[in-house]
Amino acid sequence: MDDESTIMSGESDEEYEMAVPKRKTSKSKRNMRRAHDGVTPVNAQSCTNCGEPVRSHHACVHCGTYKDRQI
Ligand SMILES: [Zn+2]
After folding, report:
1. Distance, CA 70 to ligand 1 centroid (Å)?
2. pTM summary value
3. What is the Cα–Cα distance from 65 to 58, expressed in whole angstroms?
4. What is the tens place of the pLDDT at every residue in 31-67?
């Protein structure tokens, strides 16, 4: 038991306090932080075959064509 107590009494005697925010984040500050959270919609182009909105450099999900070729 003596051995264990000597091991434990190293630097662990110091009392650590967890880092805690000093003040509540106001609605304004919270919203200001979240101002950049929005996602921008993907650039959509219409399919040349069927006219459905398609992501550029992607085959059409609707009809499965890419650059006027069936895939
Ligand atoms: Zn299509």
Report:
1. 9
2. 0.39
3. 9
4. 999 999 998 877 778 888 888 888 888 899 889 888 8
69 alpha carbon to ligand 1 midpoint, in Å? 10
CA of 39 to the centre of ligand 1 (A): 25
User: Which residues have CB less than 5 Å away from ligand 1 (the ion)?
Assistant: 47, 49-50, 52, 60, 62-63
More confident of the two residues 70 and 8: 70
Retrieve residue 21's tokens: 């925010």
Task: Using the CB atoms, write b or e for 43-58: b if 16+ within 10 Å.
Answer: eeeebebeeeebeeee
Q: What is the pLDDT of residue 31?
A: 96
Give the distance (Å) from ligand 1 centre to CA of residue 54.
Answer: 7
